[in-house]
Amino acid sequence: LQQFSDTGSRKEHVKITSESKPGFLERLSETSGGMLIGLVTFLLSFYLLFTNEGRALRTAKSLDEGLSLVIPLDSIHSVSQQNEGRLVHLAGTLSTSKPLFDPSYGLSIQAVKLKRNVEMYQWVEYEDSTEYEENGEIKKETKYSYNTEWKSEVVNSRNFDREIGHKNPSAMAVESFTAVSPNVQVGSFVLSKGLVDKIDDFKQLSLSHLEDPHTDVTRGGDYFYHSENPRRPEVGDLRVSFFYAGLSGDDPHLGSADKVTVIARQRGNQLVPYHTKSGDVLQILYPGDLSVEEVFQKEHESNTVKTWALRAAGWLAMFIGISLMTRIFYTLVDWFPVVRDLVNIGLKAFAFCVASSLSLLTISVGWLFYRPLWALLIGLLSVVPIAVAKSRVPPKKQQ
């Protein structure tokens, strides 16, 4: 089996532009615009931090509610009316009524999803810029380099600094697509669209057992090439690969059908979203055969990771907002190198301390109506960064 390799050619050129050094009023004007952006970012950080705490606690309560109500099914091959409308847990292999086809390449597979991924050999522009001051002017030296690569999106060469010699086609002759089976089941139960959407663990499909579909298409490794010479592709050539998710039938080349674990509401023979009293929706799907406890543990872990990620994003937004709003102090002294550097360090430390304190305070307010004791503890912690910063400031000398 032979895998074709592409031999990309690389070209470079350098472009130097210059502009007069901005005056004090111009820099002050730019800083004022940055302050407005900083204020908006600062206010948005409060919204993000506060709503994230409500979301995290609501999700946790919904998961606890789900764990207390869920019923493991004795059999996935029969639908019991006793469980109508209730939250159920089941595990079994995926099944679909018909295979998914791509007639253009003579390919079919018994799976929940089949993705055709088309890439085109194209020019790609890279730029690397450096700025320096010379004769009272700000000069910018930009190195543009061009390389040929396989890309799944059309690269618009009209935006290149130098399109001549690096022109790409405006569209692909073959399009990418994803086919989804209209009817996906586990035993006798039909999965909702939301559950099917969760089956997204795509694996590349081996094409080794397939023939070349057309005379102008050549198979190489796990790709179909639309190229006269796949070893030395030209700009505009295509290569096509396939991916599948949710194997739903035994395949001689891929193995047995995939097994999944589902927790959802039973409605007839359908598995649909379950609405909790906390206002969340439970419709959970994981690959493999998992117990009820394992599923809810994974969901709690996922909720924790998401919560901390959004907390970090909220803190960062607040830090950036404060930095932009206080940038004017740096602009006022930016012609004094030593003073400028000291002010910059001081402003960063100030932004760090205030962002940390206000973030913790906002989180504690978010918890106030749910867990008052934890809110009080976090509120006390919010004072620590400012107290530490204050303790490091030397006391004024006695007059």
TrEMBL record:
It is a multi-pass membrane protein. It comes from the Eukaryota. InterPro entries: TMEM43_fam (IPR012430). The chain crosses the membrane at residues 31-50, 312-333, 345-367, 373-389. It is found in: Endomembrane system; Endoplasmic reticulum membrane; Nucleus envelope. Belongs to the TMEM43 family. GO terms for cellular component: endoplasmic reticulum membrane; nuclear inner membrane. One of its GO terms (biological process) is lipid metabolic process. Keywords: Endoplasmic reticulum, Membrane, Nucleus, Transmembrane, Transmembrane helix. This is TMM43 protein. The lineage of its organism: Eukaryota, Metazoa, Chordata, Craniata, Vertebrata. It comes from Chunga burmeisteri.
